[in-house]
Amino acid sequence: xxxxxxxxxxxxxxxxxxxxxxxxxxxxxxxxxxxxxxxxxxxxxxxxxxxxxxxxxxxxxxxxxxxxxxxxxxxxxxxxxxxxxxxxxxxxxxxxxxxxxxxxxxxxxxxxxxxxxxxxxxxxxxxxxxxxxxxxxxxxxxxxxxxxxxxxxxxxxxxxxxxxxxxxxxxxxxxxxxxxxxxxxxxxxxxxxxxxxxxxxxxxxxxxxxxxxxxxxxxxxxxxxxxxxxxxxxxxxxxxxxxxxxxxxxxxxxxxxxxxxxxxxxxxxxxxxxxxxxxxxxxxxxxxxxxxxxxxxxxxxx
Amino acid sequence: xxxxxxxxxxxxxxxxxxxxxxxxxxxxxxxxxxxxxxxxxxxxxxxxxxxxxxxxxxxxxxxxxxxxxxxxxxxxxxxxxxxxxxxxxxxxxxxxxxxxxxxxxxxxxxxxxxxxxxxxxxxxxxxxxxxxxxxxxxxxxxxxxxxxxxxxxxxxxxxxxxxxxxxxxxxxxxxxxxxxxxxxxxxxxxxxxxxxxxxxxxxxxxxxxxxxxxxxxxxxxxxxxxxxxxxxxxxxxxxxxxxxxxxxxxxxxxxxxxx
Lengths: 302, 259
Prior knowledge:
The structure holds 2 protein chains of 2 kinds. By secondary structure, chain A is an alpha/beta fold. Chain A is built from 9 helices and 16 strands. Chain A has a single domain (6-52, 74-193, 212-301), classed as TIM Barrel (Alpha-Beta Barrel), CATH 3.20.20. In chain A, the strands form 4 sheets. Chain A has an 8-stranded parallel beta barrel, surrounded by 8 helices. Chain B has a 7-stranded antiparallel β-sheet. In chain B, strands 11-10-9-8-12-13-16 form a 7-stranded mixed β-sheet, with helices on both faces. In chain B, helix 5 links the parallel strand 12 and strand 13. Chains A and B meet through helix 1, strand 5 and helix 8 of A and strand 5 and strand 7 of B.
């Protein structure tokens, strides 16, 4: 049996599968459920300082086997969420807290509060409007990425991951900006901006109009982004986007990810997907003669 | 999993004041107690129990919020989006079952009543409503067994809530299973009444939903998700619940008192 444990920016994971943010991470019991189903770590829903209701329904739509969502970052706010986090941590969960806000100070405060609650790491969801800037997403300005990451690093001690958006012309410079800001790791990619229209109803299906695409359709985009980021920075990468099987995961690992996140595949394979993907990674490693999952990280770079 | 189908409303049936059944051919099928996510274009998408399982499938809706009031203005030929069916189903158990429906909860029960009857079980129904004009599915339920009515204002049948009427019937000892859907305080009473008499009981619950496919965590109920682990939960499970009759999650995910 090959070794599938992972070291990631100082975190020790029992396997390379991590729950992606936005899936089942709103309540403590659901985080525990995913942990018990075999995830190596879980990322919380993205948390802000104040509670947010999110967008009106429809908030999700199945598009050709992939998923389109515009949920609008609903969350109970950091104060209420700290209790959910503690519930999960008491059960032994390895927890990465996803945080967001409008200003560097928002991010830093939420990150510090969830670190205090016991989170093992922080993931910055940078796909949010930058209110002090041009109004575009933080993840679409290298300067903003650098500044926001630095602000969180100044107020936290646990590893900090910057989650990058693929909705940019070149993603590598953003990974460099995050590294310069002090990020301990990169999470890539966030969802791909997309839209679905109902021809009969003559309007976009999602109440918000546009949404984020996840699932099988975005995997090649994610693999390409991870490949480019691996060449550009020294910090480790959490690969995310369309991982449903062990082979999908190995693709990401060979592109340069140290571990992968899984979200949309819960729809098709259930929460057991974490154990299954881990077993499938191990089977591939075994068949190909690898003894340790770390041997395949970046292997596609020759 | 979540494929959307656009359907035309083929028939609208007035069941009671402000309550209509909408029929459409979606070909989705479904089992008693399961629900569809129904997109009311331009307004909202909501979980709705199937009151007719086979094509033309049906949902029965009371106009009480912005989106359901908007739906009340839809006409035959107008389009809705539907996906599903979602959730678990009522289990057919025992030989003689008491169904207790409050308000539009009867919309979820009626398919189960018919499934029990089709399986050769004895079926008795308690239907509760605020007032006589709000009663739904009285005739349809009466085709399969006795129906007992309660109204809060006494305009028809027993004056009071459905729970005390159900208790009186349970005291006859004629039942070995109880199935309920309606306002949660009523279901708390029904579950307690059934448990006190050692009877199996199943209750169909409602919480705010978004995805309906077990990923968004909106309908978290204790450690379960009502969209996939429910909406029907066993009495044994409910009696040890911290949320049943007490707490719900609001749209932001904050756990708040039910009322």
